[in-house]
Every structure is written in C-alpha cells, then in structure tokens.
C-alpha cells in the first residue's frame, strides 16, 4: 500500500492490478489513457453511491457488479478473483442482473 500526499503523482502501468481507497476523502486528478468508457463507468458508480445503492464499503451488490464488469471490461476489472474466473462468473451473472433490471448506465 502507498499513501500519496498533496501534489504527488502515481502512474500505474496498463494491466497492473491496483486499487484506490480513501478513508478521509479528498480530490484526485485521475487520467486514463485511452479513456474509453471510463467517464461513463465513474458516473454510474457515483450515481449508485449517491442514491444509496452500494454497501458500507461503497460497493454495489453482486448482480449490479456483474453487469458493470461485463459492460466496462475494457476499462475496469476487479483485482481479485483472477480475471479468468471473473469472465466466467460475470458472464453467467450479468444476464441475470440485466433481466432483474440492473443497467450499465445510470441517469444523472
């Protein structure tokens, strides 16, 4: 784990497992290149959090996560379990989530 202070820069190589977490909040200048659908992903996640549709750790439920993982697999993936397991697990769960009304976009 690494803690960054004001003005510090961290570059994460493409495909490197990593996570971002803050216990106190803050501001970050996040750049993703190429951006792909990164902005839409964060809008969805922040919308879910704003509307109380995440758990106490800020994570959506498993079916919503599966829909997210399938729709944004080029922009985002979990650090665990291994990606091959994620592909199979979310490949099965995402269609169920969509049938139950979970979506990969969120109205503002």
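Sequence proposed for the structure above (108 residues):
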């Amino acid at each position: 784990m690494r803690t960054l202070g004001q003005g510090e820069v961290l570059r994460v190589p493409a495909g490197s497992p990593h996570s971002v977490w803050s216990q106190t909040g803050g501001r970050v200048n996040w750049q993703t290149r190429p951006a792909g659908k990164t902005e839409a992903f964060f809008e969805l996640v922040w919308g879910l959090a704003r509307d109380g549709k995440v758990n106490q750790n800020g994570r959506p439920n498993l079916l919503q996560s599966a829909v997210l993982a399938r729709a944004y697999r080029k922009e985002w993936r979990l650090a665990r379990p291994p990606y091959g397991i994620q592909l199979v697990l979310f490949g099965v769960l995402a269609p169920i989530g969509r049938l139950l009304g979970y979506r990969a976009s969120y109205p503002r």
